[in-house]
Specification:
This protein is mainly alpha-helical.
Length: 108
């Protein structure tokens, strides 16, 4: 198996989604509650990766959707609104349609 750290570039690490898509994530994202929650859920679902890359318990559509929230400064109440469905459905239900995403933002 290749070393994801060696190919991800300085200051980044690689993660995979349930649908096997690879994302390069800046190390600074480890300081965000949203990303830490995804990592916690990954550990609960898949265990601690020893000889494999980190797999997040969501699909690539959901991860692409929340990345702008992780990148920017997210108000605490919006962060809670994003985390609530993530923790209750492990990222998959929201990625099934735009209406779910719109409802999430409308709830904010």
């Amino acid at each position: 198996m290749h070393d994801p750290v060696a190919t991800s570039g300085k200051g980044h690490f690689a993660v995979y989604t349930k649908d096997k898509k690879r994302f390069l994530v800046p190390l600074k994202y480890l300081n965000t509650n949203l990303f830490r929650e995804l990592l916690k859920m990954s550990e609960e679902e898949f265990g601690i990766p020893v000889d494999r890359p980190i797999t997040l318990p969501c699909d690539s559509t959901f991860l692409e959707y929340i990345m702008p929230f992780i990148q920017g400064c997210v108000p605490e109440d919006l962060e809670k609104a994003l985390l609530t469905p993530v923790t209750t459905c492990h990222c998959s239900a929201l990625s099934q349609g735009q209406s779910h995403q719109q409802a999430l933002i409308s709830g904010y």
